[in-house]
Write a structure and sequence with these properties.
With 216 residues, the protein is an alpha/beta fold. Helices cover 38% and strands 12% of the residues. It has 7 helices and 6 strands, in the order βααααβαβαβαββ. Strands 3-2-1-4-5-6 form a 6-stranded parallel beta sheet, sandwiched between helices.
Length: 216
């Protein structure tokens, strides 16, 4: 019998690429607070959710940080920046359709807050109804690289983690998928292949996904 029963998709860098926009929004937010930060400061916190994405940079620079207020302002800036600019990454729609055709359950498991997930899905025209369950960073206590988000997604689909394929682009996401006991497909949309070496498969984007990735 086929062992694979579900596919757990990360969002940014997998289905769409909003990294440049959240990065620009974060830089602008800190600028408004009177502090200059570099876009490169955020790289090590990619894929960990906005709490850590913003908070980590604030720690590095010793910037006073109000999680609720500063994050809300970042999302306001972000929502304006992405209007009309987000589109699916190559192969994202087709790979999702292939999963559905094979009868696989699919989940969206993003470390981002729900407001950002909703903005992204709307702008890139991914209907929330595509996913049997959606888990965001607000639904878990421990963010990636902890396995919590993928374990919760698997529970939401009533499948064992070993029956799941995680699709990720970030180092923290690959670590989280492995720690959850899932098999992992890594995309080199955000990090080079050597940084994602713990994944079971590494490809450029979902347009390069061969049949073997869903045949186990």
């Amino acid at each position: 019998m086929k062992r694979l029963k579900a596919v757990l998709f990360d969002m940014d860098g997998v289905l769409l690429d909003s990294e440049e926009y959240i990065n620009a929004a974060a830089v602008q937010m800190f600028t408004e607070k009177g502090f200059q930060v570099s876009p490169e400061d955020f790289i090590e916190f990619t894929g960990m959710g906005e709490n850590r994405y913003l908070g980590g940079v604030a720690e590095i620079h010793g910037i006073p940080f109000d999680l609720v207020q500063d994050k809300a302002r970042t999302y306001e800036i972000y929502a304006d920046l992405v209007k009309g600019k987000l589109a699916p990454l190559p192969g994202a729609r087709e790979f999702t359709a292939r999963c559905k055709m094979l009868g696989l359950n699919i989940a969206l498991a993003s470390s981002a807050d729900r407001i950002k997930v909703e903005i992204n899905l709307k702008e890139a025209r991914f209907h929330p109804e595509l996913y049997h369950t959606i888990v965001t960073g607000e639904d878990i206590e421990n963010k990636k690289p902890a396995p919590d988000i993928f374990l919760k997604a698997a529970r939401g689909l009533s499948v064992h983690p070993a029956e799941c394929l995680v699709v990720e682009d970030a180092i923290a996401g690959v670590e989280a998928g492995r720690a959850a006991g899932c098999r992992v497909l890594a995309l080199t949309t955000s990090f080079p292949a050597e940084k994602l070496a713990d994944a079971d498969w590494i490809i450029q984007d979902l347009s390069r996904a061969g049949p073997e990735i869903l045949d186990w």
